[in-house]
Design brief:
Largest sheet: 5 strands, mixed
Structural class: alpha+beta
Number of helices: 3
Strand order of the largest sheet: 3-7-6-4-5
Shape: elongated
Strand content: 25-35%
Helix content: 10-25%
Radius of gyration: 23 Å
């Protein structure tokens, strides 16, 4: 009965006090321990938002430049990325590194320029990786 009252009073306090409205941890193993903190989220967070990120390249740059950039400058620890894009109305896999046979077959794409791959300014490239839970969308700005 005391546990129910304690749980309900914690719920009322959480709902009525502005500073506890974001995240409250309640541990009732031995005694009562609580703490609260405010979680904040960046609007352009790559991990938790679906916002597309803009990247700028020359049209003559190879796809390898894109792979290098997303591996070092975007804040991701991409180990085995897969790159796909809609090209000519069809979903095209540009590179896949997690399967050895596919990686070998698609490796020549890394040396091709964006123009040779028929990529356009404003083109979206979707990146998936086992280390990232959601696909990441990048919009190309080609100069």
């Amino acid at each position: 009965n005391k546990a129910v009252v304690s749980t309900q009073s914690t719920g009322i306090a959480t709902a009525s006090y502005h500073h506890l409205d974001n995240y409250l941890m309640f541990n009732n193993v031995e005694g009562v321990y609580t703490f609260a903190f405010t979680s904040e989220r960046k609007d352009n967070c790559l991990a938790c938002s679906r916002a597309s990120q803009q990247l700028t390249f020359a049209g003559s740059d190879p796809l390898q430049a894109f792979l290098d950039t997303i591996g070092t400058e975007t804040g991701f620890n991409l180990r085995k990325p897969t790159l796909t894009a809609m090209v000519g109305g069809e979903n095209k896999t540009l590179y896949m590194s997690n399967l050895p046979q596919m990686e070998e077959a698609l490796r020549p794409n890394l040396a091709l320029s964006f123009h040779e791959l028929n990529m356009q300014d404003g083109q979206e490239i979707v990146v998936t990786d086992p280390g990232v839970k959601m696909p990441v969308h990048f919009i190309l700005t080609l100069t």
